[in-house]
Amino acid sequence: MSTWVSILQTALPFLYAALVYIFGQIFFRPGVAEARVRRVMPFAVATVIVHATYICLFTLHNGRCLLGSFPEISSLIAFTLFSIYTVIEVRRTEQASGTGFFVSLIAGLFQIFSSIVVTGEAGLAGMEILKDPVFNLHVTAAIFGYAAWTLATIYGGLYLLLYKAMKSNKYGAIFEHLPSLERLEKYGLRATGVGFGFLTLAIWFGWRLMSVDPELTFSSFLFHPKILATLLAWLVFGVTLMARRVIRLEGRKLVMLWMSGFVLTIISMGFINAFGMRV
Amino acid sequence: MPQKLVAIALTHKTAPVELRELVALSESESKALLTQLHDAVSPDALLITTCNRTELYVRPNDESITTDILIDFLLRAKQLPPGKEQELRQSLMRLTHCDAITHLFEVISGIDSQIIGDQQIFAQVKDAFRQSEEAGTNGGFMLKLAHAAFRVAKRVRSETELGIGAATVSYAAVEFTRKVYDDLRDRTALIIGAGETAELAAKHLVERHIGSLIIANRTVDKGREMLQNVRDGQPNAKDDAVSLDELAAALRRSDIVISSTAAPGYVLTPELVKSGLHKRKSYGPMILLDIAVPRDIDPKIGELDNIFLKDIDDLRAIVDQNLERRKEELPKVHSIIKEELEGFLSLQSKLEAGPTIKRLREKFEAVRREELERNLAKLTPEQQSLVDEMTRRMMNRLLHTPTVMLKEPRNSMDDLLARIELINALFALDEVSDENKPTSDH
């Protein structure tokens, strides 16, 4: 089995590199993107399947998921990012945004980093928690959630770029190649929704995981810096979804709202990691 | 003997519209001219006639047919006012073979159009080839030329950005709305003014399947009349015509506003738009297109969030930038045309030289057989076989150079024809074919 894990670990960066090339051809070359995205669809799905197979084989072989180190998690981020993109967008190719280039590029970079660095069990002795199914579900759901928000941020960033270009009468490549503001907003919202759902699950599994500790109280759980930061981000994304539904907030303000959630997440996680605050 | 393609062309580059319209042919006139050409000149003829050009391509049966004769045919097809014939003759471009093929490729790719990269011309040239087929003037040569021309157009479309972006102000407005909204079917457009320009803008939106239209005009009845016109007498249930006093209410329901009135001052002020925005169904983006001169919409409105205000100069900027980008694509287009021209000429060289090469080999083979038969009796069977093989190899080696020379792609048809003529003369091939021709007695 370890041979197959190694083969797939080596093959994945090449698959992502091929996707970056193909999506790049679609995005930067003239013509209607939808028809060409449709042709890439089988390859994108195949990459997702190969990556899922790699994660399954790795889990079976090592008795734990790809959560032992940042390079391992990078592969999971690449997988979640690209699989969510595939589900959200490529599923309906007639409305594809043609932004697969950016997503596959980011996913590809994470996977290349992971494939180069991941070696196996080094430094994981004694980390029994990695074999706890609830912990695995908690972290996997969290990674899916954050990956979906990363995707939403990519859409949001592209939205703001196009918005600025249109406001300032710059009708170059950005204006020409990006899809409409409406479509970017729609897919960004969809990614936000997916991220919100997964993070809700991650919080629930996190609470289950910590509730086994008899000394843990609800307030000590809630006010832990990492939990607090996660809850804040979760709240911002929840507000984004509510604002769209209840007060029909649309356009730049809505995009700024969900992007602020992502920025908040990055800053708070960076701050917490820098000061070594661990749960 | 193959003949050169000859062409005459009157285009927007060579003649003003007053002259071009004199030789603009209707479909029936085109068919009549092609039929005449078929009967008198060639089974290979193509006539392209649009508002910007009248072009005639013919591959005649014999070399006596020149561009001047084609001009005679074209001018006879129309009743010309006195004194205009000479002017037309002077304005017509005369093209021969490679230049004619290159010109056709330039036309179909859109680089010879008034608006560079015009997509309409492809359909017009395709239609011309269809007419040629119907008139029976799409002989072998024209058919191959059609395939090559379509390949050029396809490559230019897929390999360059020549056709990308709007090239007219009205289309730029539509393109702009498409960059904000994916689908106009559930959107509402407010048209301020009921003049000609406003009506044209409304028609463009209807063509893009706009959900509902509100016409705001000083006279509501005129607005209603315009609504009937643009919707072909069948307005949607949500369509409406309102007076200018009801603008604020109309703004609340609108996603796109196009203003084209003759009002001397601003029709839409920031206060009016802000009050409309506050009560809108959604806080999504709103497009305001001001195509009036003097402007109808206060430019300060453009500073508001989620508002895209564009005036006629902004839209023209889209067009200018697109045209500039199209011009940057010209070297790529020329290179595609050059490649396809070489491919076409190479194929033609092979096809045209084919009969000559065949006759040349037949002549050599006949001489070889004659000499062999004369001497075979003096040789043993082994020697016969050896000599047969040796003479065949000699013949093949001797014919290799002239065959390659004939098959090589030529940049000029004159060159190919000269070589064919030279081979014919050197080896008296015409006599061979004449000898082989069946006589009427048989």
Describe the structure.
The complex is a heterodimer of chains A (279) and B (442). Chain A has 279 residues and is mainly α. Chain A folds into 2 domains: 1-126; 132-279, no CATH class. Chain A has helices spanning 2-28, 33-62, 70-88, 100-117, 133-167, 173-177, 181-211, 218-222, 225-246, 252-274. In chain A, helix 1 packs antiparallel against helix 2 (33-62) and helix 7 packs antiparallel against helix 9 (225-246). The radius of gyration of chain A is 20 Å and the shape is flat. In chain B, strand 5, helix 9 and strand 6 form a beta-alpha-beta unit. Chain B starts with 5 loop residues before the first strand and ends in a 6-residue tail after the last helix. In chain B, the strands form 2 sheets. A 6-stranded parallel β-sheet of chain B has the order 7-6-5-8-9-10. By secondary structure, chain B is α/β, with parallel strands linked by helices. Chain B is elongated and about 115 Å long. Chain B contains 17 helices and 10 strands. The interface between A and B is medium-sized, with 26 and 29 residues.
How much helix is in the residues of chain A?
over 70%
Shape of chain B: elongated
Biggest chain pair contact, residues each? A-B, 26 and 29 residues
Strand percentage of chain A: under 5%
Largest sheet features of chain B: 6 strands, parallel
The number of E-state strands of chain B comes to 10
CATH H level, superfamily name of the largest domain in chain B: Glutamyl-tRNA reductase, N-terminal domain
